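PROTEIN DESIGN WORKSHEET
SECTION A - STRUCTURE
LENGTH: 300
TOKENS:
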């Protein structure tokens, strides 16, 4: 059994180094605490159109910055997540990728919102917007979760100007996610060109092929049962389309987990970053995006 686990870890690290993505099996966490967790979340937060501000209220004082979860305003903080991060198989994979003493940079819930729930003024506001973060349209008491309706290809480095890409995103589905539930899509291998400024100039070539930096990529669509999760590099391009499941919404757990600064070698992260540097790519950017004005509104 131990040998099988070791082989699996090596497979995950190879995938992470070469593809920028490691997809873990759903049996890496226990189903009972997973079920209790999502039931508690849905008991605390009844999702629906009532979450949104009225147009009049929003127009009087639009707030576009500081509308995402933060310490003290984060629904995930009230939940025991040891069933996930303390799961021995999950810890083993994180340690293989990041080395020992990795630590959590950020943790929150992410909700995909159906188009049917969006007020008319929100639909108009986010039209042609590449990153339709809905937080600014939510009533303040509900801003303890991040809300989206689709999102263009982006790197998670977008949230960390001037920081080296020494971290991964762990994305966890506590409920089954199918094609209509706005599953995450990752362009496998897109981390290798390194850090680039958003928007990234990704072009669709065909149904399953995208062009980026003179190379072609096929997206991995992350779907699966409750307990499914994936880990990707901070420079890996990923995104999603809006949910077409109008009767419900996807709720996911997103962790950003970083390598300890003293761990410089012997990890999959170190190997992946060496490949990026050898190919002439960068691992950090002073400015990570150019799509917003000073107020935080998307530029026309």
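SECTION B - SEQUENCE
RESIDUE ASSIGNMENT:
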């Amino acid at each position: 059994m131990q040998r099988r686990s070791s082989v699996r870890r090596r497979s995950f690290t190879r995938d992470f180094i070469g593809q920028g993505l490691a997809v873990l099996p759903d049996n890496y966490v226990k189903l009972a605490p997973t079920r209790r967790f999502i039931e508690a979340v849905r008991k605390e937060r009844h999702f629906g159109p009532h979450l949104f501000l009225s147009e009049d209220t929003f127009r009087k004082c639009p707030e576009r910055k500081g509308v995402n979860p933060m310490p003290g305003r984060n629904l995930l903080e009230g939940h025991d997540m040891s069933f996930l991060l303390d799961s021995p198989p999950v810890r083993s994979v994180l340690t293989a990728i990041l080395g020992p003493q990795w630590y959590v940079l950020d943790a929150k819930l992410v909700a995909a919102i159906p188009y049917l729930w969006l007020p008319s003024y929100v639909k108009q506001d986010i039209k042609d917007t590449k990153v339709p973060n809905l937080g600014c349209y939510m009533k303040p008491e509900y801003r303890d979760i991040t809300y989206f309706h689709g999102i263009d290809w982006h790197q998670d480095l977008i949230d960390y100007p001037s920081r080296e890409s020494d971290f991964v995103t762990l994305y966890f589905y506590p409920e089954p996610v199918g094609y209509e539930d706005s599953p995450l899509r990752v362009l496998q291998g897109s981390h290798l060109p390194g850090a680039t400024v958003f928007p990234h100039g990704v072009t669709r070539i065909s149904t399953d092929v995208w062009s980026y930096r003179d190379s072609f990529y096929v997206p991995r669509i992350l779907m699966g049962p409750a307990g499914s999760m994936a880990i990707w590099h901070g420079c890996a391009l990923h995104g999603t389309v809006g949910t077409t499941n109008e009767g419900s919404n996807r709720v996911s757990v997103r962790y950003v987990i970083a390598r300890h600064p003293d761990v410089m070698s012997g990890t999959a992260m170190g190997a992946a970053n060496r490949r990026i540097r050898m190919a002439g790519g960068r691992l950090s950017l002073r400015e990570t995006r150019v799509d917003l004005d000073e107020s935080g509104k998307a530029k026309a």
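SECTION C - NOTES
Residues 2-19 form the longest helix (18 residues).
The radius of gyration is 19 Å.
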